[in-house]
Sequence to fold (206 residues):
Amino acid sequence: MRSARKPQLDLRLAAAKPDAALRWHEGASVLWLGQSLQLAFCSTQTQTCREANILRLLLPKDASPRQIQDCAEAWLRSEAMRYLTQCLHDRMEEKKSALVTRRHSETVEETVGQTMQQMTVSTPLQMAEQHEGALTLPRLVLSFAVRGHWVVLEKNVSKEKSTAPTLRCYWRPIEQAPEIIDAALTQALAPYVHPQPNHSLFAQHA
Fold:
């Protein structure tokens, strides 16, 4: 026969669950890129949107706490995907530009003494794309896992060839300041954009 649960345990469990009505209501706030946004309702607009420091939710005035939470977090997740995608694109463009510059410099040195025709066979961009270390944009996937790292780079290998890796990002860091998000991305992408010679690019994630 199962023993009855102690009243003290019930009290602790109840205390661990915050009242949703106290957390999610009109006038409450959420964090976005380190800033506090106040929640407001607007049922006449076409979508949830931010205006300065106000997040206008596409909800009626009698929306439940759960509806408010779902609407606000859906917007935050969409912002996480937008912001992380832009950050990732910017990182790859910076790395590509650096690669083009380096390969162009190496090619100029190698072709000293050759004819002008030989020097202009390939453009710097073509040489960068042909280079063994040329990068492709990782596939970005939002994660809902509470435990673990904010950002994880995963190796993708098919039977025929290696494909672009997957960058799995927990969505809640969108609440943090941009410099904190940037630091997490830098750490996760380091093995990919700054590979060590003669080592697997993803050894530490294998």
Notes: The helical segments are 7-16, 20-23, 65-110, 116-119, 124-130, 178-193. The radius of gyration is 25 Å. The chain has six helices and seven strands.
